[in-house]
Design a protein that fits this description.
The structure holds 2 protein chains of 2 kinds. By secondary structure, chain A is an alpha+beta fold. Chain A is built from 9 helices and 23 strands. In chain A, helix 7 runs antiparallel to helix 8. The chains are: A alpha+beta, B alpha+beta. Chain A: This is AP-2 complex subunit mu.
């Protein structure tokens, strides 16, 4: 299990250090760590006898390493370090055992989420300002290196930084049963005057296209985020136009198949928040759950078939001699003319030896950004079924560099008000048998947002 | 509120100031001071001097303050154990607090304070907390048992906490169950033999129920534990799989990977004809693909695992090639892993796409990645024959880019392509030759030279090309030198007329001017071949080469199977078994996949099958020290102990060694040497008795049940030297104790009486356990047989040689000294160690103490050797098979308390029947003797 957890700033100074297991070298036996050899086990030749300080070992071998980090897991002298970086903060988990590596990373992300939920952005300043809180959290969510309940909702009920409030006995047992209970993500006795819920279908559409316009790979990864303000312990059921479900129902009523069959989508795979009853989904493919209060991610899914690609990029690059490049890029919007795409940005990479650029575009604004080695073309809004064009002349400095310019792909960013996967929410039913409000009384909102993920066209 | 100010105090009298503040009356000030202390602790300042002052703040109602003090305690208690006791009272009191959060906090913290004295006080509170009414306290207490076990395993067992922990598996609260499972799994890891996690269909059912209800982390603990279970038959395996499959939709990747592990493992037991088997395969692909949309670090873990899964069951992901295409801004570690998997999945169906991608990657920036991409193109050519032509032309395009490392990498792979498809693509050689000058890496140079030599007849200026390399011959790496030598010899055989000078030059460079034995030998072979029989040389050097195989760098199957059992863990990330990176014995139990046949007999899980039988039937585990005799008795009398009853058993060893006196008989051996007081003019120090070499292992009594080996009696003291008394003898081990069997013969003319025996101090602490009793006087020519019990508790003195034992015996006042050379009692029954101890000790003993030997002509297999040795108290701790060799790890303990660890390497089917033995021992001088003992036992 996790033997210790350290948080460093970008200089490698320790901001937080919590050791859970004795086998991790502690500070006392500090030993200026040297040696950073390459290979899978750098530093191993130092042998186990030399008790090296894990804190320093990580700083020397990873944070201060001369070359780029080649793996998020590093083994130094038989001690394994897992790290993730958030802005310029390093979080490192350390162990000497054969731990579940996926779990350690999941835990590190979770820990970032929890910290963010408590004090916002993870920065050196925020960490220093909240170090007492962080120690308290670490004590709670990791016991002897085993992750414990790390749901922010539950944690916030008793890790408050307010000292201990005089809780009644009931309150205390409510806290403990929530933290350990079956429904650890929701507490009893929530009341709202207005029962309301918001569903956001957020999709990111990813594309890799060849210069000739052939789709090399495309997929949508989507999330359904729910914000619930519901009283009591509501039982919810979520339905969407999942092909498997629709076809199943279709067997009963042939009518409906013909109506909705076309619009159903094939979901490659989906994963759910821990509140969803997985065994029920497995057997009946129905998504039922008791939601946490407030905002949470109900599900993630992935589709690869019949994706609506909102934009098509057509590049044309011509090298004119050794010192000039002519680039023409056309973008075409491919959705209903009544809809508007926003925040469109096309990024056209330029060679490192670019000396000057002239751009002409029909719509929006385009600029050459030397620091980013790219021409950035921004368009605020664009309706469906339109097309726009940019042309640029790039002057190059002559170089001796034999290596050819690698021509990174042209990438695009945008936001569209529909789900490129074609996903539609069919219903979200709410049942709360104990309180007297019914499904009809709940106010429901649904919104679709499609964003570009990695949307690239090679040129 | 901002805490950062606590980090900034760096004034001189800091500790002093803090002390004052800690003792302040104002609560707020106290709290501030403790925060400052913790801040200093975090940045690495030593604030242990404040221990008493901080502990004084412990008794408070303020939970936040209390937690800070606890944090401090956990850090410093170990350095101030006596003061830490001051905290005990508060802990004990807190464990009774009405607030469950405080009870849990107290028990959680107490377990983290690794001070023996505190641990004692922990037991009672822990016992209560394990049965607390509040689940939060119980789940904390469950983990605390694991903490305590880590500090003092014996205490946990004695206090019965393990049973309580087992009961918690049936707890009503899922989180308590999960933590209990985690704690038990960890404890079980350090006791591979104990049947702690006694998994049976009922307990499995409980776990599967809890799986649906507990937190994501709890699900991981439970799934990891389930993966160690071995279902009775395929039906049970299937029903568990059915209940685990829903976990594949969990948002937490670790839950998904652990579920994949359980399914991959249990799938082994399902018949491939089953519909369910196919369904399961189909269900595995989507979640694996989904893992690739996780954060990059998790993608990396997932990809390393997918790499294993693809090798084990390629059918799962064969249609998913596209998802492994590299994205421009993937981190480099993700890119490299994806590339690996792409090659593994490449097939005729998708090769066009793959090639287009690889070509794209070859123009990227990262040098390692580009190289790997180029190499991948070559591997595709070798793997998918239809694509070879396209691959070759792609490689040629890449060579045209003239990017140095791309060119070199391409040449290396083209060489492999030539070896796979001879006489097909040689037209490209001209292009390759153009790039000769730019090659600066040995591998590329060697590849190019190979090509030139192999196709010398088609390259007009082959001799010039090779000659150009020859100039700097001595600066080349060995690889290039060897290749150059061979290439020039090939060239000579193909075009003898023009190249005679060249070949002579290279031969003399290789044989006369080189220090490298490989190079020299190869040079001489060629030289002699060429000078004696050029035709034969041609046949040898220009022989047709076997085609190279298509799959490279696959993980060896047994390792792969083991790694599949470790899916999701570090082992699967490193692609190494845990023993390669985990220190000591923890968690290094070898795991293996279940056998496909589902017979209930064979389903015994390897990790629950320790070195011996399960506890009940194993009276010989480790006898308590101090009562050696009793235990020995136990041992040999107890029913199932020693190996198969007999057969090879008390075979007497024929005229073994002996003679050599001391050295050879070592451990057992004893040279009788006359004590200086001897009245008889005796053979001081001379190995009189000549032969007694046996001894050594004396295990059971003469000709008794066990298969141990007893040497024949040998004459230790000839009559001439002892006034007519001839003594011959041997050592035996009877029911575990050692005795010296003596045969006294009166070869004199008068009656002998008053026999006595005395042992000088010796290396093994051997001493008579009873006086020598010869009841009747011994008449002339009469012979009497006596068995003299020996103990090993005599004083020990290191003798030179080690096996030197001096004994004087005789009648009346005239002791005749003699030295029985014979094998001394080598193994004591205590010689059995557990695996983890074995490993730890093995590592502990410095390498220079390791001695290696070879035992020739020993046609035994591992089984036979092991049982033979066991009957001589050399115990096999573990056995494994590495690259076709059986490795036996053994331990023995000499009666003088010296432990010897041995690694025996047996190569079945090796005609020379040579067994290799490595010995490690803190007293390296015994190694030689132990080796001889081994040799004697094994060959006998």
């Amino acid at each position: 299990m996790i033997g210790g957890l350290f948080i460093y700033n970008h200089k490698g100074e320790v901001l937080i250090s919590r050791v859970y297991r004795d086998d991790i070298g502690s500070r006392q036996a500090a030993d200026s760590a040297v040696s950073s050899s390459s290979g899978p086990f750098p530093g191993e030749r130092l042998g186990g006898s030399m008790r090296r300080n894990a804190v320093d070992a990580f700083r020397v071998n990873v944070i201060h390493a001369r070359q780029q980090v080649r793996s998020p897991v590093t083994n130094i002298a038989r001690t394994s370090f897992f790290h993730v970086k958030r802005s310029n903060i390093w979080l490192a988990a350390v162990t000497k055992q054969n731990v579940n590596a996926a779990m350690v990373f999941e835990f590190l992300y979770k820990m970032c989420d929890v910290m963010a939920a408590y004090f916002g952005k993870i920065s050196e300043e925020n960490i220093k300002n909240n170090f007492v809180l962080i120690y308290e959290l670490l004590d709670e969510i990791l016991d002897f290196g085993y992750p414990q309940n790390s749901e922010t909702g539950a944690l916030k009920t008793f890790i408050t930084q307010q000292g201990i409030k005089s809780q009644t006995k009931e309150e205390q047992s409510q806290i403990t049963s929530q933290v350990t209970g079956q429904i650890g993500w929701r507490r009893e006795g929530i009341k709202y005057r207005r029962n309301e819920l918001f569903l956001d279908v957020l999709e990111s559409v990813n594309l890799l296209m060849s210069p000739q316009g052939q789709v090399l790979s495309a997929h949508v990864s989507g999330r359904v985020v729910m914000k619930s303000y519901l009283s009591g312990m509501p039982e919810c059921k979520f339905g969407m136009n999942d092909k498997i479900v629709i076809e199943k129902q279709g067997k009963g009523t042939a009518d409906e198949t013909s109506k909705s069959g076309k619009q159903s989508i094939a979901i490659d795979d989906c994963t759910f928040h821990q509140c969803v009853r997985l065994s029920k989904f497995d057997s009946e493919r129905s998504i039922s759950f008791i939601p946490p209060d407030g905002e949470f991610e109900l599900m993630r899914y992935r589709t690869t078939k019949d994706i609506i690609l909102p934009f098509r990029v057509i590049p044309l690059v011509r090298e004119v001699g050794r010192t000039k490049l002519e680039v023409k890029v056309v973008i075409k919007s491919n959705f209903k003319p009544s809809l508007l795409a926003q925040k469109i940005e096309v990024r056209i990479p330029t060679p490192l030896n670019t000396s000057g650029v002239q751009v002409i575009c029909m719509k929006g604004k385009a600029k050459y950004k030397a620091s980013e080695n790219a021409i950035v073309w921004k368009i605020k809004r664009m309706a469906g079924m339109k097309e726009s064009q940019i042309s640029a002349e790039i002057e190059l400095l002559p170089t001796n560099d034999k290596k050819k310019w690698a021509r990174p792909p042209i990438s695009m960013n945008f936001e569209v008000p529909f789900a490129p996967s074609g996903l539609k929410v069919r219903y979200l039913k709410v049942f709360e048998p104990k309180l007297n409000y019914s499904d009809h009384d709940v106010i429901k909102w649904v919104r679709y947002i499609g964003r570009s993920g990695i949307y690239e066209t090679r040129c | 509120m901002t805490d950062s100010k606590y980090f900034t105090t760096t004034k001189k009298g800091e500790i002093f100031e803090l002390k004052a503040e800690l003792n302040s009356d104002k609560k707020e000030k106290k709290k501030e001071a403790v925060k400052k202390v913790i801040a200093s602790m975090t940045v690495g300042k030593d604030v242990s001097a404040l221990f008493p002052d901080v502990v004084n703040c412990m008794q408070t109602d303020n939970l936040e303050l209390k937690k800070l003090v606890y944090l401090y305690l956990m850090n410093y208690a170990k350095s101030q154990p006596d003061m830490a006791i001051m905290a005990v009272n508060t802990f004990v009191k807190d464990c009774e607090d009405p607030n469950p959060l405080i009870r849990a906090l107290a028990v959680r913290t107490m377990g983290c304070i690794r001070v023996d004295k505190i641990t004692e006080y922990l037991c009672e509170p822990l016992r209560k907390c394990l049965k607390d009414e509040d689940p939060y306290v119980r789940k904390t207490a469950a983990v605390c048992v694991a903490k305590l076990h880590d500090i003092n395993a014996q205490l946990v067992e004695d206090q019965g906490f393990l049973d309580t922990l087992k009961d918690l598996i049936s707890d009503s609260n899922p989180m308590v169950v999960a933590n209990a499972v985690a704690a038990l799994s960890e404890i079980a890891e350090s006791h591979p033999s104990s049947n702690l996690l006694d998994l049976n269909p009922q307990s499995i059912n409980k776990l599967l129920t809890a799986l649906n209800e507990c937190t994501e982390w709890g699900q991981i603990f439970i799934l990891d534990c389930l993966a160690n279970y071995m279902p009775k038959d395929d039906r049970e395996a299937q029903s568990i799989c059915e209940r685990v499959t829903p976990r594949l939709s969990h948002a937490n990747s670790a839950v998904v990977l652990s579920a994949v592990k359980v399914l991959m493992k249990f799938m082994e037991m399902l018949s491939k004809d089953l519909d369910y088997y196919g369904t399961l395969l189909k269900k595995l692909a989507p979640p694996l693909v989904t893992l690739l949309s996780a954060e990059p670090e998790l993608q990396y873990v997932a990809l390393r695992n997918i790499n294993l899964i693809v090798q084990k069951r390629p059918e799962i992901l064969k249609h998913e090639m596209k998802v492994f295409f590299v994205k421009y801004n993937d981190p480099i570690y993700v890119k490299l892993e994806k590339l690996d998997i792409m090659i593994r999945l490449a097939s005729q169906a998708n090769i066009a796409q793959v090639l287009a991608e690889l070509k794209e990657y070859a123009t990227e920036v990262d040098v390692d990645f580009v190289r790997k991409a180029v190499r991948a193109i070559g591997r595709c050519a070798i793997k998918v024959e239809q694509s070879a032509e396209r691959c070759v032309s792609t490689l040629l395009d890449l060579i045209q880019t003239k990017v140095n490392y791309v060119v070199q990498e391409a040449i290396v792979v083209i060489k492999d392509i030539f070896r796979k498809y001879p006489n097909k693509y040689e037209s490209v050689i001209a292009t390759l030759c153009e790039n000769l000058d730019s090659l600066d890496e040995p591998e590329a140079r060697a590849a190019m030279i190979w090509i030139v030599g192999e196709y010398a007849e088609r390259i007009d200026n082959a001799d010039e090309l090779l000659e150009s390399f020859l100039e700097g011959f001595h600066d080349e790496s060995t690889q290039v030198q060897l290749q150059l030598l061979t290439a020039i010899v090939k060239l000579f055989l193909k075009k003898p007329t023009e190249t005679q000078e060249l070949v002579q030059q290279v031969l003399s460079l290789a044989t006369q001017d080189s220090d490298n034995p490989d190079l020299r030998d190869r040079g001489y072979i060629y030289w002699r071949l060429l000078s004696t029989d050029p035709v034969a040389a041609k046949e040898v050097v220009l022989a047709e080469k076997p085609l190279i195989s298509e799959e490279t760098d696959l993980i060896e199957p047994t390792l792969l199977d083991e790694l599949i059992c470790y899916i999701g863990t570090l082992a699967s990330v490193y692609h190494k078994p845990p023993s390669a990176f985990v220190e000591g014995g923890r968690g290094v139990v070898h795991k293996s996949l279940p056998p496909r046949t589902a017979s209930s007999e064979s389903a015994e899980s390897p990790e629950t099958a320790p070195t011996g039988a399960p506890p009940g039937e194993q009276p010989d585990v480790i006898p308590a020290q101090g009562d050696l005799l009793g235990d020995l008795l136990n041992l040999d009398l107890g029913p199932p102990v020693s190996g198969p009853p007999l057969a090879t058993s008390s075979v007497q060893m024929g005229a073994v060694d002996l003679l050599g006196g001391g050295l050879d008989s070592l451990i057992g051996g004893t040279n009788f040497v006359a004590p200086p007081t001897a009245a008889v003019p005796a053979n001081l120090g001379a190995p009189i008795g000549s032969g007694l070499s046996d001894l050594f292992d004396l295990t059971s009594g003469v000709g008794t049940l066990s298969g141990s080996y007893v040497a024949p009696k040998a004459v230790w003291l000839p009559a001439m030297k002892a006034k007519g008394l001839e003594i011959s003898g041997t050592f035996t081990r009877q029911v575990g104790s050692i005795s010296m069997d003596l045969q006294l013969t009166n070869k004199a003319l008068q009656v002998m009486t008053d026999f006595a025996i005395q042992f000088n101090r010796n290396s093994f602490g051997l001493a008579p356990a009873a006086p020598l009793q010869v009841h009747a006087p011994l008449s002339p020519n009469q012979t009497v047989e006596i068995s003299l019990p020996l103990s090993t508790v005599g004083s020990v003195m290191k003798m030179e040689p080690l096996n030197n034992l001096q004994v004087g015996s005789g009648q009346g006042r005239h002791p005749s000294p003699y030295s029985p050379t014979s094998r001394a009692p080598l193994g004591s029954v205590e010689g059995r160690v557990y695996r983890q101890m074995f490993l730890a000790t093995w590592k502990d003993i410095p390498n220079e103490n390791e001695a290696q030997f070879q035992i020739r002509d020993c046609p035994l297999n591992a089984e036979a050797a092991s049982s033979k040795l066991q009957s001589s108290n050399i115990f096999t701790v573990a056995k494994r098979n590495v690259e076709g060799q059986d490795m036996l790890y053994q331990s023995l303990k000499l009666t003088n308390g010296i432990w010897v660890l041995a690694e025996l390497r047996i190569q079945p089917g090796n005609p020379s029947c040579t067994v290799r033995l490595s010995l490690k021992c803190r007293a390296p001088e015994v190694s030689q003797h132990v080796y001889q003992a081994y040799e004697t036992i094994l060959k006998n």
